[in-house]
Design a protein that fits this description.
Blueprint lengths: L4 H14 L5 H10 L6 H11 L1 E5 L5 E5 L8 H11 E7 L2 E6 L4 H11 L6 E4 L3 E5 L3 H21 L1
Antiparallel strand pairs: 1-2, 3-4, 4-6, 5-6
Helix pairs in contact: 4-5, 4-6
Length: 158
Amino acid sequence: MKMAKNERQESILRLIRSKDICTQEELVSELVAQDLIVTQATVSRDIKDLGIIKVTSVSGTSKYSVLDRTGDAAPGRLLNVFSQSVIGCECAMHLVIIKTLPGMAQAAASALDSIRLQGVIGSIAGDDTVFVATPSQEDAAAIAQTIRDMNARLNSDT
């Protein structure tokens, strides 16, 4: 059945929150199984509109995750700020070090805090560097990979 954009997007959010969805194809299949008429192009636009990101788990697998918004900021805007300010990301033991353009670390840290990646204990920002504390080296590696993947995807969309 064809449905309004809001209803379709709510269905997408419910699915991603309730199941581990790894690809757009899986998401389309799940929606079709619910008798919704969708195309991959529509789902791709919905993913971008909703601020859905791919996160890497400690085991190295990736899945879609819903951006947890704070305040009234649109998810796409937060991701835009993040992708336009971050220039590199590395691990050092249980820390993730994010390099940004000069003067952009605070904005990147704020956007990262809003994303609320699992495994982030806290972050602190200077002028062009953000330090992210994690509980383990494995969490740090997974978060760094998520940030690199997210940044690459967001920068390739522009």
